C-alpha cells in the first residue's frame, strides 16, 4: 500500500506539470516625443498696404530704428577741484588762523620750535579762566587738531582737551619746555602717581612774574588756574 500511494503521488505531480499553461503576452506601449525646430515666421511682403499693418501683431511689424539724441556729458567738478576736502580745510584754516602761527606752533613734524609732549602750556580763553598744565599728547587732524593738558587742582588730577583752532581760544603760551625729548608721543604714563608732575602753579606763577617784569604789565592772578 505504501508503494502504491507513493506511485500515485508521483503521477499526480507529473499530471500537474503536463497541464497546458496559459500564454500571457505582455504588450508594452511606448510613448516618445519628437522635437521639431521652431518654425521661422514668414517674411512680410514688401508691397503690403499700410492699412493692413494694424491687423498684424506688433512684434511682426516692420520697425524703423529710432534715432536717439546724444547729449554731451556735463562738465566734471573733479577737474576744477581734485581734492575738495583739502580745499575746504584750507579755507577754514584761512578764516580761523589767517597768520598760520597756531598751525606752525603745533606742527612738530616740520617746526623744530613747536610744542612737544611734556611741555607746560598756558591757554587763555575768551570766555572763562585760563588753564595751565603739562601737554600729554598732540593730535594732528587738520582743522580738528587738539592737545591734552593735565594739571592738579585741590589735589585732584584734572585733564582738558583743547582745540587749537577753536574761536574761543585766545592764546597758547609755552611756559616751560621739557628738559629732554620724550621717547613717546603720548605721555599717558604720567597719570600714574609715580610719574605725575602734580601741580604746575608755581612754574606758571614764576613765568607770569618774569613776563610782567619784561613787558611792564601786571598779570591777573585771580583768573589763572
From TrEMBL:
SUPFAM superfamilies: Translation proteins SH3-like domain
Entry GO MF terms: structural constituent of ribosome
GO cellular component: mitochondrial large ribosomal subunit
Swiss-Prot/TrEMBL keywords: Ribonucleoprotein, Ribosomal protein
Protein's GO biological process: translation
Pfam hit, one: Ribosomal_L19
Entry similarity comment: Belongs to the bacterial ribosomal protein bL19 family.
Protein name: Ribosomal protein L19
Amino acid at each position: 500500500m505504501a508503494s502504491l500511494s507513493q506511485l500515485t503521488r508521483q503521477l499526480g505531480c507529473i499530471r500537474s506539470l503536463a497541464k497546458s499553461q496559459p500564454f500571457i503576452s505582455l504588450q508594452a506601449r511606448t510613448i516618445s516625443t519628437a522635437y521639431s525646430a521652431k518654425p521661422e515666421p514668414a517674411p512680410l511682403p514688401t508691397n503690403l498696404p499700410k492699412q493692413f499693418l494694424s491687423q498684424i501683431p506688433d512684434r511682426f511689424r516692420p520697425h524703423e530704428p529710432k534715432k536717439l539724441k546724444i547729449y554731451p556729458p556735463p562738465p566734471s567738478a573733479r577737474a576744477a577741484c581734485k581734492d575738495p576736502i583739502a580745499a575746504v580745510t584750507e579755507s577754514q584754516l584761512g578764516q580761523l588762523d589767517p597768520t598760520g602761527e597756531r598751525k606752525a606752533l603745533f606742527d612738530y613734524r616740520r617746526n623744530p620750535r613747536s610744542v612737544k609732549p611734556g611741555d607746560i602750556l598756558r591757554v587763555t580763553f575768551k570766555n572763562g579762566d585760563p588753564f595751565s598744565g603739562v601737554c600729554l599728547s598732540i593730535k594732528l587732524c587738520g582743522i580738528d587738531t587738539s592737545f591734552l593738558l593735565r594739571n592738579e587742582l585741590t589735589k585732584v588730577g584734572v585733564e582738558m582737551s583743547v582745540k587749537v583752532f577753536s574761536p574761543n581760544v585766545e592764546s597758547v603760551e609755552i611756559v616751560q619746555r621739557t628738559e629732554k625729548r620724550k621717547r613717546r608721543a603720548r605721555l599717558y604714563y604720567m597719570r600714574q602717581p609715580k610719574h605725575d608732575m602734580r601741580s604746575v602753579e608755581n612754574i606758571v606763577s614764576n613765568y607770569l612774574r618774569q613776563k610782567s617784569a619784561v613787558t611792564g604789565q601786571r598779570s591777573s592772578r585771580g583768573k589763572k588756574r
